[in-house]
Amino acid sequence: MPAPLPTGPLVTRDTLASGLADLGVRRGETLLVHSSLSSLGRVNGGPVAAVGALLDVLGPDGTLVVPAQSGDLCDPAPWSDPPVPETWWETMRATMPGYDPATAPTRGAGVVPETVRTRPGALRSAHPQTSFAALGRRAAEVVAVHAQDCRPGEHSPPAALERLDARVLLPGTGYDTCACLHLAGYRIPPPLVAVGRPGPAGRETLPEVPITSGRFDEPGHDFERDRPAGRPVLRGTVGAAGVRLFPLPDAVAYARRWLELHRPRTEEFRTRRSEACGPYLDS
Predict the structure, then answer these.
(1) FRET partner for 125 with CA separation of 20 to 30 A, picked from 5, 65, 84, 99?
(2) Burial class, 210, CB count within 10 angstroms (exposed 0-12 / middle 13-18 / buried 19+)
(3) CA neighbours within 13 Å on the CB side: how many for 7?
(4) Burial 92-124 (b: 16+ CB within 10 A, else e)
(5) pTM listed for this prediction
(6) What share of the chain is helix, strand, coil (3-state, %, to 5)?
(7) Coil, strand, or helix at residue 274?
């Protein structure tokens, strides 16, 4: 029995670029993209065509940024997707390759980020687990700083994107994939945890920032609902995918206020501390 014909719509590089321009993507802007290629329909040319369309609509002065995390470059003990036998742990720790921005593949971010990462001229930030890749005029500025002890915080590409007044594009994905919102979490004062040896004044305390795996769908929904009439989240359809477009600085500022009110840091710390490594996005 012959295989059924694929369902549409058939999407091309030109129709993608046209749809993104109609939505409001501007030439010359800096754009952080979290994407689901399969949601667009049958893309003729796959991720190469999709990335080409994004670059076409941004133009030579624009900058395309994607998450390029490699969350599997960490201690295997807490892995759950998938877990590995405990008898493997020591060997994996001893033989795990070091992070090389030029060669380490992305994991859990989808095929579009991997296509951007491997495209000639792409630059990538230095964090071994939660890097970002960028193409375009301001790519070097976006990825220049990514401290080893700072995933998506003040010394990372999301903070650079905020300073550059970037916008976020979500084709076929939701706010739960939006890495820039982690920047809001870093700005909430963390709880103090006891470490080290007891001393005359008790145990030393240090701030600890938990790494969460997202849960930004709730603040994202409220951000969209509460936008002023003159500055809404732009929504439309490109191919078969629902798409959102919004200013990154506005979303981060709103998420910080929302998290302080609805999700105190102490609760976040207690419930998410165990997620020490691995992908923090699911796109």
Answers:
(1) 84
(2) middle
(3) 4
(4) eeeeeeebebeebebbbbbbbbbbbbeeeebbb
(5) 0.83
(6) 35, 20, 45
(7) coil
Helix axes 46-58, 13-23, angle to 10 degrees: 40
With H, G, I as helix, E, B as strand and everything else as coil, classify residue 178. coil
Residues lower than pLDDT 70 in the chain: 1, 3-8, 190-214, 263-283
Nearest-angstrom CA–CA distance, 282 and 110: 8
Of residues 101, 130, 97, the one with CA closest to residue 211: 130
| φ and ψ at residue 158, rounded to 5 degrees | -55, -40
Question: In Å, what is the CA distance from 56 to each residue of 121, 176, 209, 250?
Answer: 16, 27, 39, 26
pLDDT above 70: percentage of residues in the chain: 81
Residue type, 154: E
Instruction: Give all strands of the β-sheet with 234-238 in edge-to-edge order.
Output: 123-124, 132-136, 63-67, 30-33, 167-171, 241-247, 234-238
What is the number of alpha carbons within 13 Å of residue 23 lying toward its C-beta?
A: 28
Do strands 30-33 and 123-124 pair parallel, antiparallel, or not at all (unpaired)? unpaired
